[in-house]
Amino acid sequence: MPQAIHIDDLAAPRLSEVQAGALAWGETVTVDFSEHAILDAARQRTGLSDFGPEDFRERLRVLREAWDGDPEITRFHRTVLHGYLGRYAGNRLLIQDALKRHPAILNERIERPLIVVGLPRSGTTHMVNLLAADRRLHSLPLWESYEPVPLPGEPAPGDETDPRFRRCAEAWAGMQQATPLIASMHPMNPEHIHEELELMGPDFASYNFEWLGLTPRWRDHYFAHDQTPHYEYMKNVLRLLQWRRGEQKRWVLKCPQHLEQLPVLMKTFPDATVIFTHRDPVAVLQSTVTMQAYTQRMNRRHVALRALIDYWSDRIERLLRACVRDRDLVPATRSLDSPFHVFMADQMGTMERVYATAGLELEAPARGQLMRYVADHPRGKEGQVIYDLRRDFGVDPAALHERFRFYFDRFPVKAEVR
Q1: For labelling, which of 87, 113, 279, 318 has a CA lying 20 to 30 Å from the CA of 259?
Q2: What does the pLDDT average to over 348-357?
Q3: Which pTM does this prediction carry?
Q4: Which phi-psi region, left, alpha or beta, contains residue 162 (left: φ > 0; alpha: ψ -120 to 50)?
Q5: How far is Cα 123 from Cα 341, in angstroms, rounded to an integer?
Q6: pLDDT tens across 295-346, in order?
């Protein structure tokens, strides 16, 4: 049985010595959120200067100003956010340089990808990692998503000896020190298969920035703009990765954002097979806001429980309404609806249906690879967080179920939270 984890200090965190020390260290650090400081640091790190199309500067400005102008963000977290912007700016330089020097990259074909689409916390991560165990498929490990192109002059063996892998491992170790329970909620070890949305980061795009803090200004900017150019940018980075690997395979991808961008997704990957995961959105919501509240002990000066439940209730509703509206844009012959409770009860049976939908043989070697992954990654391996919406957020699950009734009416979802 997984170890039960009760977080009883969400609203008033009891900080460990390590957490208190990290926050105190943050108070001694000053970071400069100016465009010049961020881009110049990227130039110095890479030795490059061509950022490509200039439209990214507007999106960078929205993020810089939103984060720099929020007095609730701790100075410790300011250093983290500044690091994200610097890394993305550096990656943009490296990607642009690679595409300029090797124009043939854009001729790479990304054919018939398998794309897992569903709410966060709905089994998308487990399913994409399970599919990635099949060595016939390309997938995107976290370390490579963080740094798709090595720094000039760095060795790039593409394994655990790669400097990029080591940097990712060090970041994960630091995250576990600051927020030790995060491993039980969302592991971020280097080999963990990540969302291709990370590849939009160098274009300063995607809803991913909403997960780094309460940033309604960024959300509104995202909704006000067509995401097609950013999906094409991401596809070009996939082309780059495939070119670097020297082998054309089908990709397995996943991202919750695709729920509200299905027209753009299908325009970008017209021959994709899409697997939709479906789970009780109240279970998704309680997991999401609990994780966000837990990390806020390091990120914000006051934990914003009410703001979190309001923000993510709205955000999940928007994702689901778009899915209900656009689900049928994906042809029935290349799509599958996968209820979470069915997937968890019979993982290999679900994978057989996924493979049949994708037109991919589940041969003995691949079946063995998947079964080994299932055996090595039982649910709750790092412990199981016990959630309580009423106690922690003052919310009645029944009211939330009514809010999401439109989704239950459309898909075979089993209510989990009472």
Answers
A1: 87
A2: 97
A3: 0.97
A4: beta
A5: 10
A6: 999 999 999 999 999 999 999 999 999 999 999 999 999 999 999 999 999 9
Q: What are the phi and psi torsion angles at 74 (to 5°)?
A: -65, 155
Question: pLDDT tens, 33-72?
Answer: 999 999 999 999 999 999 999 999 999 999 999 999 999 9
Over range 373-386, report the average pLDDT.
86
The owner of tokens 């249906």 is 353
- Each residue of 230-256: pLDDT tens digit? 999 999 999 999 999 999 999 999 999
Q: Nearest-CA neighbor of 12 among 213, 297, 290, 288?
A: 297
3-state secondary structure of 373: helix
Shortest CA distance to 109 belongs to which of 237, 271, 239? 239
Amino acid identity of 396?
D
For tokens 């429980």, what's the residue? 305
Rounded CA-CA distance 89/59 in Å is 12
Q: Is a pLDDT exceeding 90 seen at residue 1?
A: no
Residue 16 tokens read as 């460990």
As to burial, measured by CB atoms within 10 angstroms (0-12 exposed, 13-18 middle, 19+ buried), residue 290 is: buried
Q: Domains for the chain: give ranges and CATH numbers.
A: 4-14+110-201+232-410 (3.40.50.300)
How far is it, in rounded angstroms, from Cα 13 to Cα 297? 6
- 385-397 pLDDT tens trace: 999 999 999 999 9
Structure token digits, residue 114: 């398998």
Long-range CB contacts (within 8 A, 24+) of 390-397: 392/7, 392/10, 392/11, 392/290, 392/293, 392/305, 393/286, 393/289, 393/305, 393/306, 393/308, 393/309, 394/305, 395/309, 397/282, 397/286
Which amino acid does the sequence have at 70? D
CA distances from 126 to 40, 159, 194, 368 (A): 38, 22, 11, 17
